[in-house]
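User: quick one, fold this
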Amino acid sequence: MLNPDKINRINELKDLIQKWNQSYYELSKPEVSDEVYDAHYQELKELESQLQIINKKSPINTVGYLVNTPFEKIQHKEQMLSLENAFDEKDIYDWLSRALKTTELKELLGFVCEVKIDGLSLSLIYEKGLLKHAITRGDGFIGEDVTHNALTIRDIPKKIDFQEEIEVRGEVYMTYSSFAEFKDQGFANPRNLASGSMKLLDSKLCAERKLNFFAYTSPSLNKNLKTHWQVLEKLKELGFQTNPENKHYENIEEIIALCKDFENKREKFLYPIDGAVIKINSLKVQELLGQTAKYPRYAIAYKFKAEIAETLVENIEIEIGRTGILTPVANLLAVRLSGSTVKRATLHNLDYINNLDIRSGDYVKIRKAGEIIPEIFEVIKEKRQGHEKKFEMPSLCPSCGSQIIKIENESAFRCLNYEACPMQIQKRIEHWSDALEIKGLGESIVKKLLDKNLIKNIADLYKLNKEDFLLLEGFAVKSAENLYNAIQKSSTQNLEKIIYGLGIKGIGLNSAKNLVKNLGLTFWEDFDFFETIEGFEKLISIEGIGELNAKEIKNFFINKQQRILLKELKNFLKPIINQQISIVNKLNGLNIAITGSFNLARKEIQALIENNGGKFVSSISNKTDYLLAGEDSGSKLEKAKQLNIKILSWQDFEILLNY
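Assistant:
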């Protein structure tokens, strides 16, 4: 029987990873380090394996993230896969052992080792020697056509001496020297800037970013050559840049030594790298090994350990989020790490500080995998001199002076002044801007608008005139007009983004989509509905909501101040109901058979399966994913056991539908 507690943990992990994927792929704003992401990913993978859950839409079985942008969507001729990760030598040997077992070939004709660049994957399609399409990886099946920007990258040939249709895949990246010209404009690192540049509508702006490209494979050339190394050599002949650090060796020991060499000298590279890619050289063996839903079995990515630096905690201050949660942040003596200067590190909560015993004045070790978010992981206590100061959570809010309370059964503290706390208001407006994609309305601009008393809440944004922005430092007529137009444009937006932008606790974009799918404009128009028993029960019944989130929604909409704000917003916004909302069906793509008797009729169960994206199958085969077994099960049950097919009880089936 499936364990409900583990299912709940799987749900939490899945939502977190999908949120992080959205931030990484769509917003080019990674929220967590590679180490944090990988740890949560591994936990999800192990739990799904333990429970033998098959979910083809789980982050474990999907690649990338298909973003919602105006670019044309193009289907890849062959799926663009991700890579399985290895974190040490044992992982590499385990991967090789699996490969040998699968192919029964003891001679793998050597290996190729390539530097793993931290950039953006791109597929180039040439017809009759001319570049026709440049397509991002997207979700692995469908990507975005960014040819107009690819044409500005000097390393991408516009014409090659090859008349047949050919696909070339590689990585768009930015050097540290190019990034230095833009780092003062708010970009976190070269990878983020490279990714964001490829999504620009104006190719002139992309050209200014001075992007580069390394080719690393060509599915088209695989058909006529024998080894991956030959593919790389052919790509060079055709005029593509391949990484000069690439090497090929006959034995795995030499490859592992090269991986470690890359890791030891990564600071000397002119561009960001976060690992090395090991590939079996023989294309015949690659074909025999095949792939999983997410990874090719013939390759693995060796991930570098996080870089470490020592620095001083100058002081610890408090940041307040949009829901009033207090987050301690360490201000650090500036230090170089992974190609950028680090001055701050989040300390998460009081438990985190106490567990590590972090004090103002401490020397600490910090790390930053993937050049993303720095974190303190160790205090150098032998360097203490006695003047270090222990941190205490304030009893009054540093932003508004209101009472601070500790949330029951959590390590979090909250400011209770939701309506009037300046920092909470600022963070809510920033969240609204992110959710509704208001270009140019970032943290600094929001703060300036609040400081000038030009706005007090979200609704006030839509009351601003172009002239108001000219009162802010750094604004000219054109920039004022651009921001004014961006705000006005956001007034016509998909309803799910508006709901997400309201910042209701526990309601992310997917939950907002489910609310729109089930309630439509009622959610936006009928506040009284949420005070009724019928309304509350309706909320609980919606996929992905549950009782806890239903209470948060109810409390949000019956709050007097929120009602005033929402009525104001309704005067400016024109919500759109998206008729093609993409919501993940819980049984999507799964083949499910039934045996035995249940309280429901067979046709009703079949409808449940199909309405949730599954396929009802009448017989058992190797293609069957699950067998739903009731009382007095027949021969199907025995056959399922022989084929090692997962067998579900009715209770398991209900849990799976809620997964």
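User: anything notable?
Assistant: Residues 4-26 form the longest helix (23 residues).
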